[in-house]
């Protein structure tokens, strides 16, 4: 199957447009400044449809015999993350999954831990296959991610699940402080999209498994404000936000549950949010090994907005 995008080309394409300082006569909307209230509209039945692509390629992470043998390289700076996402073209794909992903607010839901929030339903349709609802992502319970002992599985990439990490369904809540999602293990957020501090250069972090995996962190920054061109319009004052998930050192097991080595992996990506529209673009590279030269990783996801009803 022909690959639908090449990383650098896709990024250049979606960020083509006019400067935020220009009059931008072709821009859609009134150019509202981003706030936590307008950066992701959340009226019931609001929906977004994305061109969805997942690719994997031949790559194996470097395994080390003991945790202490794993290099203790620092995570990349935000400038390094940005440069990597802009310029690192992934290897030729061995697996390509292409179709659409839809996010829709459908009423309310209550998690097993007792958090009541909006129900953001995620559906992925691959080719001509019937739609499938992606499992709400709960870092504590999803066994396709490193388990409570920090152990991955050697029979498949622990990075690739039902859909992207950076945009996913589940119990979604917007407060005066942040936009976050919640799971069944406890009442702490399982993911944080944004905080109320939307100034360029602001950062935040979230410990994803504080009780089970203290080294597993989400880190994010509002990297820059841009004008973004999409299939549904061109929008000023969009926020280009970078995300990094640091797994720390994890063990890798074979199908018999035996540890076969240790590895350090990170995921990196970006989401572009347009005021009054919501997330219009997402790209993430999974399973990257940190170091002086960042590895190509194991897989990637791209989501490009092609339809939404929030502009009706």
Your description of this structure?
This protein has 312 residues and is mainly beta. Helix content is 6%, strand content 46%. It has one domain (7-308). The protein is built from two helices and 14 strands. Strands 1, 2, 3, 4, 5, 6, 7, 8, 9, 10, 11, 12, 13 and 14 form a 14-stranded mixed sheet that branches.
Q: What Rg, in angstroms, do the CA atoms define?
A: 19 Å
Total number of beta strands: 14
Task: Report the average pLDDT across residues.
Answer: 84
Helix amount:
under 10%
H/E element order: HEHEEEEEEEEEEEEE
Which segments are poorly predicted (pLDDT under 50) over 5 or more consecutive residues?
1-19, 135-161
Percentage of residues in strands:
over 45%
Tell the overall outline: globular
Count of spatially separate domains: 1
Characterize the main sheet.
14 strands, mixed
N- to C-terminal separation? 35 Å
Treating each run of at least 4 consecutive H or I residues as one helix, how many helices? 2
Q: Helices and strands: which structural class?
A: mainly beta
Short description:
With 312 residues, the protein is mostly beta strands.
Keywords:
312 residues; mainly beta; 14-stranded mixed beta sheet; 2 helices; 6% helix; 46% strand; globular; disordered N terminus
Write the layout of secondary structure elements.
Elements: H1 7-14, E1 47-56, H2 78-87, E2 95-110, E3 116-126, E4 132-133, E5 151-153, E6 170-174, E7 178-182, E8 189-195, E9 203-209, E10 213-230, E11 233-253, E12 259-274, E13 278-288, E14 299-308
Parallel strand pairs: 5-11
Antiparallel strand pairs: 1-2, 1-14, 2-3, 3-4, 3-6, 6-7, 7-8, 9-10, 10-11, 11-12, 12-13, 13-14
